Amino acid sequence: MTVVGPFGLSVRDQALEADVQAGLAAVEEGLLEATKSGVPFITEAAQHLVQAGGKRFRPLLVMLAAQFGDPYAPGVVPSAVVVELTHLATLYHDDIMDEAEVRRGVDSANARWGNSVAVLTGDFLFSRASRILADLGPEAVRIQAEAFERLVTGQILETAGPRDGRDPIEHYLDVLEGKTGSLIAVSMRYGAMMSGADERIVETLTHYGERLGIAFQLADDVLDIASDSHESGKTPGTDLREGIATLPVLHLRARAAASGLPEDQELCAMLDGDLGDDALLGEVLRRLRAHPALEQARRDTIRYAEEARATLAPLPECFAKQALEQLCDAVVHRAG
C-alpha cells in the first residue's frame, strides 16, 4: 500500500499505483513543456508556480477517473495538463485580487514582478491550455469553456456579494460550486471521457467531482479555524485575517442575527475589527472553536463528502473506486 497524491491517499493495488504515478510524472513533464516560451522571462514567470510544487490534486483525479476506461488513452495526460494549467492560471489572478505575498512557500508572482506581469502570465497559461485543448477535439473545448465560465462567474459572485434578500450561506455555496467545484468536476469528466468510459460513468464521476470539490473547500474553511499550524501546515486564522467570510463565519453571523445573543454580537464585532492584532485574532479563534457555528460547518462539510461518496454507488467495484471513496474519508477526517 503506497501513499500517492494529496491528503495521504493510499493506493492498494500495484497496477493502479503504477498507472497513477506514471500519469502524474507525465503530467509534470507536460506542465514544464507547456510553460516554455521563446522569451526566457516568460518561461521563468510561467514556471514559477509549476516549480514551486503543489498537490496536483486535479491531475490525480484525471488519472483515477481514467481507470474506468483505458488509462493509457492518448488524451488522458494532455487533459490533466489542461486542468492543472487552468488551475495555476487562476492562482496568479487570485493572488492579485487578494494582494497575496506568498504562494506555495515562495513569493507570489505579483509580489515578485508586479500585478501586470502576474495577470499576463496567468493569461499566458490560459492560452497554452487552450492550445492543448484544440488537439483534444471540439467537445473538450466546449467542456472547458463552460467550466471556465462557471469559474469566473463564481469569482464575480464572490466579489459582488449576495444580492439583497439572498441567504449569504446559499450564496457562498453557489460561489464554491463555480470557483472550486467546476474545475474538479471537469477533471473527473476529462479523465473518464478521454479514457473512453461509458457515458453514464462519465456523468457519475463528473457529479462526484462537483460535490467533492465543494467538500474540500469547506474542510479548508473549518481547518482555518480548528487546526493548529503544525497539524495543517497553514497559519490558523489566515482567512479571518484577510476578511474572507468562510462558512463558519457565515453560520455565526446567521446565528447572531437570529438569536440576538450578546456574546454572538460581540464575536461578530470582533471579526469586524483589526485582526492584524495577534492577540485579538487568538481570542476570536478561541471563541469560534467553542462556538456551535464551527460544528455546523463541520456537518455541512461532511454532508457534501457523503453526497460525493453516494454518487459512486452505481460504479463497478474496483481499486479506483475505493481510492475515490477514500478521498471522501479524507474530507471527513480533515473536518473532524
In short:
By secondary structure, this protein is mainly α.
Structure description:
43% of the residues are buried. The strands form two sheets. The chain has a two-stranded antiparallel sheet with strand order 1-2. A two-stranded antiparallel sheet has the order 3-4. The protein contains 17 helices and four strands. It folds into two domains: 197 residues, Orthogonal Bundle (Farnesyl Diphosphate Synthase), CATH 1.10.600; 124 residues, Farnesyl Diphosphate Synthase. The chain is 74% helix and 3% strand. The protein starts with a strand and ends with a helix. This is Heptaprenyl diphosphate synthase. Belongs to the FPP/GGPP synthase family.
Total number of domains: 2
Q: How do the strands of the widest beta sheet line up side by side? A: 1-2
- Cα radius of gyration in angstroms: 20 Å
CATH homologous superfamily title of the largest domain? Farnesyl Diphosphate Synthase
How many runs of DSSP E, i.e. beta strands?
4
Strand content: under 5%
> What's the CATH topology label of the largest domain?
Farnesyl Diphosphate Synthase
Q: Which stretches of 5+ consecutive residues score pLDDT under 50? A: none
What sort of overall outline do the alpha carbons produce when their principal axes are compared?
Answer: globular
Order of helices and strands: EEHHHHHEEHHHHHHHHHHHH
Determine and state the CATH class of the largest domain.
Mainly Alpha
Helix % is over 70%
GO molecular function, one term: metal ion binding
Cofactor: Mg(2+)
Keywords: Magnesium, Metal-binding, Transferase
GO biological process, one term: isoprenoid biosynthetic process
